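tool=predict chain=A
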Amino acid sequence: MNFFTKIKTHQSTILYSLVSVVMYYIFAYHLQRADFGRLFALYAALFIMAYKLIESNKHNLNLLLGLAVAFRLLFLFATPNLSQDFYRFIWDGKLILNAFNPYETTPQDWLTRLDVLKEIIPNYKTLISGMGDLSAGNPTNYPPFSQAVYAITVWFGENSIFKTLIAMRMFTLLAELGVFYVGRKILLQLNLPPERIFWFFLNPFVIIELTGNLHFESLLVFFLVFSLYFLFKNKWKLAAFFFALSVLTKLFSLLLLPLFFYYFSKKKGLGFYKLLGFYALILIFTALGFLPFYSKEFFFNFTESIGLWFTSFEFNASFYYVLREIGFYFTGYNTIGVLGKILPIFSVISILGLSFLRKNYPEKNLLTGMLFAFCAYLFFSTTVHPWYLTLPLLLSIFTRYRFMLVWSFTIILSYTAYTATKTTENLGLIFIEYFLVIGFLFFEIYKKPLKKRFLRF
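tool=predict ok
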């Protein structure tokens, strides 16, 4: 087959790839968050291109891998345009490199110590302005391993934000490659098609939110898939170590701990006592990770910042927004202070129900249980930022459910909140987002025979 024949044979793939390159480039360097019409058009087109590429190259995994990496590298020199969180990452990293505990103060606290601040963070004005008043006025809530990554990347970047962003992107890319490698191994272990990994790795949501916007959920899922991989091989001690690292990256993993009860009790070679050992090791490794930062200020500030996500912040919520409107009707004011304390109880009840009333064995059942447990948390949350979907999206590729693919697309509707100078959500579009996701979820559940719905979903 000569060169021109190959071109003709693969002309569709070449076209989809080139169109994707152009759109990712525009997304990275020529898009403003407030321009939602353009943002949505690009995002929708990239989803179509990803679908076409995966469907037409199912058996050419090397090609899909190369494209996924190439698309990510297009963002290498770009400043994130959909999120300003990276300014806070750099701030925390700077403090650590100068031997200050980032959990003990807020950026605004440092404005009273300008003589020291100018010396340790010369570009402090840019960072505080970039992160915004909300971040600058609150203690950091990023766990220790994330903090270590911020410090390492800031060290590589020296005093340059541009160089630091490149270092952060390389960390993210390496983590996502690790997810690809181990995720594919788990798919093969479960006798599932290995190309499924590209519904995560080539998903525009993942490329844009993780590599593009520099959210370190990439490290969270990297450690979690390693933990599951070792657990499925009965190497529960290694599994506990990597699970603890996922907690030390983002606390979300803690929500999944109860799901292991049934799995350990039924898996040959594990059992109840090893489950206790598994939990104990996770606790020990996690405590050791937090130990260097521990102080009275750390404990108060960290717990306070976590609490704010439930009782003060609200963004892209589902059930909470419905209950909030009901609360407005009866009380005339925002009842987030009350709802933010009640809704987590429903999350806990849902997770415990999935843990102890459902057969989370064998591995496919465990992964499905984990998927639904985390989604229960998201549905009852007052704040659901787009990158929160990273973990359940990855879990979904090991199950028969595809509603997370729908959500990874409809989540873009939440960005309408930034079309004005002040963050204002379009509740009509938020309703459409969740209507499509929950509707598709119920369709997937109820299309199964009735007798299988509860124990197997």
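The CA atoms of residues 325 and 334 lie 8 Å apart. The chain has 23 helices and no strands.
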